[in-house]
């Protein structure tokens, strides 16, 4: 069995991005020895949070690792702006509402490593909003919320906090992967999570298209070209 794990990041100056790639490069050596099933294979894909939303066909996975900083005045950094808009909308509509219909992200489990700088009054605002929005909609955070402060010193230096968080994550991640192998209803829940998120994207972003439309439109141009080529061929023969 192969487990796909998405590693998603938003990063203005590259710190979160390099942490995301580090997690991905360590994954094949760190995770398999901790899994119950020796034949279990793990694969990861790294992309920005916005690419995940905008590459509508990106496959959803039950485990997501998110690494993201704060930028501007508690805003999202590059690669996470649309994702943050989706999070704001989730909180506005579903925050603190416990009805099961609003918990459409049930079945999604996430790890979150946030980066920020405590010199800012809006310290850690963006990762906090993401964490609150995802859990308000039913996603389950696993492991500790990573809080890597660019102004941290000594043992709290940002790079050290990032390394410690990554080191501590493998055990929790293995636990989640081991649990998943015994669950079967996961696929249905993931599909619902994806569909409801797409509905939100359609409302929020006028240029956004769901996967089927995207696939159709991307097939439309080549199909027209093939028809034109056949017509041209026929006309030349006449
Ligand atoms: C212009 C600017 C604005 C920032 N705004 C915030 C902020 O509002 N809150 C916060 O916690 N950190 C803020 N930071 C700090 C960054 O989040 C921190 O430097 C982080 O390590 C950057 O990670 P990245 O390279 O992945 O974007 C800001 C940094 C800069 C340069």
From TrEMBL:
Keywords from the UniProt entry: Flavoprotein, Membrane, Transmembrane, Transmembrane helix
Entry annotated with the keyword Membrane: yes
Which superkingdom?
A: Eukaryota
Query: Keyword Transcription: yes or no?
Result: no
All copies of the Flavodoxin-like domain together span 5-170
Q: Where are the transmembrane segments?
A: 214-235
* Alphabetized InterPro entries for the sequence: Flavdoxin-like, Flavodoxin/NO_synth, Flavoprotein-like_sf
Protein name per its UniProtKB record: Flavodoxin-like domain-containing protein
According to its UniProt entry, this protein's organism is: Cyclotella cryptica
